[in-house]
Amino acid sequence: MKGLALIFQAIIVGFFVIAIFLILLGVVAGNILDIRDALEENEQITRTINLAQVVLSSNELCYSDGDHVYRGIFDRDKLEAVESNPNILFSRIRYPSDSDIDNYFIKIEDKENSESWEFKSETSIITTFSVSRKFPVAIRYSEDVVHVGVMEVKISGEKIALKLW
């Protein structure tokens, strides 16, 4: 009888050890997936900021006096031209076709008179991620008239898996 009780106790202790091991394994796996999601999100945020930095310095949108391109100061006439034909901008500024970014959306809004310009290069692909960031800009209407504005840059596409190990 005593030997049977010891075997029964050993079986119960074994189940507890296995249960604790499985719980710890689940916690570790969950943390790895959380880290992986955070890394993927940071990668997309970095790509959005990089695209915005290029647009902020783009000769296709920024004011130029012939010698210099003024970063972050958009020319209203250039904004109108690009809004009517976004390929002017997106043919020169985009991620490579083999990247996971499929859609671009840029909106520039004049905060003083609520005028806005939108540029899209969206495809019909279903996207699994979307990241948007806003940046302060200036909009030059003429030599004497410059307004404060905001540029929103949004990218979206199909998420590709990051390899952690």
Q: How would you portray this structure in words?
A:
The protein has helices at residues 2-56, 76-84, 87-90, and strands at 62-64, 69-75, 101-110, 116-120, 129-140, 146-157. It starts with a helix and ends in an 8-residue tail after the last strand. With 165 residues, it is an alpha+beta fold. Strands 1-2-5-6-3-4 form a 6-stranded mixed beta sheet, covered by helices on one side. The chain has one domain (2-157). The chain has 3 helices and 6 strands.
H and E string? HEEHHEEEE
Compute the separation of the termini in Å: 51 Å
Q: How many separate structural domains? A: 1
What overall geometry do the principal axes of the alpha carbons give? rod-shaped
Largest sheet: 6 strands, mixed
Number of strands: 6
Poorly predicted tracts of residues = 161-165
Proportion in helices: 40-55%
Residue share in β-strands:
25-35%
Rg, Cα atoms, Å: 27 Å
| Order of strands in the sheet with most strands | 1-2-5-6-3-4
Class from secondary-structure proportions: alpha+beta
Return the average pLDDT rounded to an integer. 80
